[in-house]
Amino acid sequence: MTQFLGRATIRVNGQVIETNKGASLDLGGTKRNPIVTGLKVGYAEETVPAMIECETSLAAGMSLEDWRNLVDATAIFECDTGQSYVIRDAFVTEAITLKDGDGGNVALKIAGPGAEEVA
Q1: Which superkingdom does the taxonomy of this entry point to (predicted)?
Q2: Which end of the chain is more exposed for a tag (fewer CB within 10 A), N or C?
Q3: At 67, phi and psi to the nearest 5?
């Protein structure tokens, strides 16, 4: 029977981020924007960052300072189906947002150069 992605594990510099359901990975890399000139259709390329978006829950004794100051990191998005993707030189893109209730959700956005699939 075929297994489909059900859960991802995110590691940053070897440390597991205990994520809530719904973590996502945008592989980044090359984006091709369509260009129309007369009757011809072509494209122009631009580089876009890889992006991991996830939420974790604030636990007693947990500090958010390490996440807020994260730069030059190695981030890995591991799928329970066996695939893994690494983003090198990763960094947090936005100020950390913390919400009360429902476990104290902490939103994280981590970006860097295009993700590479790890064999």
Answers
A1: Bacteria
A2: N
A3: -70, -40
Distance (Å, rounded) from C-alpha 32 to C-alpha 73? Answer: 27
Q: Cα separation of 48 and 108, whole Å?
A: 18
- 67: three-class secondary structure by DSSP: helix
Task: Fold for 8-118, please state it.
Answer: Elongation Factor Tu (Ef-tu); domain 3 (2.40.30)
Per DSSP, helices labelled H in 46-90 are 65-68
Instruction: Quote the CA–CA distance of 89 and 113 in Å, as a whole number.
Output: 7
Q: Which residues in 78-113 are b (16+ Cβ under 10 Å) and which e? A: bbeeeebbbbeebbbeeeeeeeeeeeeebebebbbe
